[in-house]
Amino acid sequence: MRPLRSLRPLIALALAPVLVGCFASGGGADATGDAQDGSRLRVALAFPPAENVSPYGADSTILSRLGVTEGLTALDANGTAAPALAASWRQENDRTWLFTLREATFQDGSAVTPAAVATALAHATQAKPAPAALAGVTLTAKTEGSTGVRITTADPDPVLPLRLSSPSLAILSAKAYDEKGDVDPVGTATGPFELTKVMGATAATLDRYDDYWGGRAQAAGIDVKFVADGTARASALRTDQVDLAEAIPVAQAATLDKATRGATATTRTTSLLLNTEKGVFKDAGLRAAARQAVDTSAFAKGVYEGYADAGVGIYGPAVTWAAGKRTEPVGRAKPAKADGARVTLATYDNRPELPEAAQVLKQQLEKAGFEVTLEVREYSRLESDALDGKFDAFVLARNTLVDTGDPISVLASDYTCDGGYNIAQLCDKDVDRAVAEAEGTGDTAERQDAAMAAEARILGTDAVVPLVHQRIITGVGTHVRGALLDPYERTLVGIGTRR
Length: 499
Prior knowledge:
The structure is a single chain. The chain is α+β, with helices and mostly antiparallel strands. The chain is 24% helix and 22% strand. The radius of gyration is 22 Å and the shape is globular.
């Protein structure tokens, strides 16, 4: 594969014309594209909407990254809950919290009231599948006077304010919800940018929401293109067709000026997930054989060219407290012989390193005696099959703190019997017990210890084999100021982002 690397910059240049004209301004402001205050931003995102821009699934981060949606709380740089639509809150008892709302309006002009917030949260609790932030959690919200929302959980939830920062628990106006349970964030959110039009999986248009409670955004709007091809995203940035391009492939980093490359250590881990419910990897011994076959150094040094660290667990170096608390996996089976067992390994190409990582995995597994068929699709065409357990193995890049900022949430959603994002189809009573114990722990240090104990249980099943912990490269034009690059990958554009 190495000889192909030298051709990639040439391929990128060849693809550059593909996006010419795609980012013409969607509005009257700055139609000439000159850099000035009030210009529209041109953004290339890697992932098109997979669920009709529903806030309850993977699309929720599209909405938060573009400054469309907000929750009651936000996640600050230290990973703690900060005020958003709620100006303050206090815990009344171990199951009840009272949130006081700030004065704000929805983009349809209606007021953000306690009743509107309670309705929005009720819809989130009824969503199918449940938002990852609500995995294993039952809550009810009721109004309290003119500014209060009292939220009660069925079981003690010591990190509820952190949980409510999840992009999947965004607060939308009553107009967003229909009788069928569908949700439409177009013109119904509260952020500094209003989603005005979504053109399927290809593009979206946003305009500045002038009445945003946090102040008027400096950009007049955002013109978004969903560009699954990473080479094309890099080319678009290099040829000044876009101002911001997310998830630049590591193989394309050298084609960009150093000043336009923003490498951010993230809490994203790329892992091999093995289907524990059916097929070859229902056998714990064969899962152990697959795990034993994996050489993680080949991914960090080769596939990711140094923009990653070798996988050590579900949580990587960006989760700074994890390394000192990590313990050995519990209950691992002895590796069995593969003996030509046939497996289907799937991944998606929105993150260009993943197909290459899957190809390396294919070679490693075949060397260990497996027969591997590789399947690569665009993520939106793959997600439902992955969640339905139609593949034996799956390579996934997952931000472990994106859902809530709480380390336990990703464990509950991805690795418990009732988890809404359980691609490994794992259902293990010891894992569920460890995750439940962690969820009930309030003290921060003790909660971290419990998270690592649960991680050890999960790794012991060999349902997941961590490959690398990533550093995400974002392309930022030299004329752009105020891009929001964070390890949780929840933000990209804010009120101070401009060109």
